[in-house]
Amino acid sequence: MVVESPSQDSHAELQGAVIEEFAPRFAPGAKVIYLVDTAKMNPCVDHQRLLDVGFSPTQQDRLPDIVLHDRCRNRLFLMEAATSHGPLDRKRLVEFKTLIESRRSQPIYMSAFLDFEEFGKHVASIAWGTVVWLAEEPDHLIHFGGNRLLGPIP
Predict the structure, then answer these.
(1) What CATH number has the domain spanning 24-144?
(2) Which end of the chain has the least Cβ crowding within 10 Å, N or C?
(3) Higher pLDDT, 4 or 115
């Protein structure tokens, strides 16, 4: 899955991969409650579910490209499809944390890339405390904040 330059097609391709490949592996049963259609600039929104997790209609323009809600595990996946606008950087992470601070679900902050080549272009700007998923390697995640996985080694 190699893409020469970011485009609306690559963005749609990446979003499709998130829904078809990422979600069943890492968020089984999660529902898409927000998805920006870049071709039409018209979001697909489950208004009731967004309200249920605590987002008001006025906050929708600040949401990432994709929001998945896993009701069973009480997780909210906030994912940037990093094609034309890049990954979830520190500034955007602060915005998301402010947006989500009073929510009941555990937020998972993520960036998705089509491949390692695109990931490599943006790796220096990816925020700590986030997770990266690559469509090229759909079975793996890259955690930017390993202390939550390993803890300190004495």
Answers:
(1) 3.40.1350.80
(2) C
(3) 115
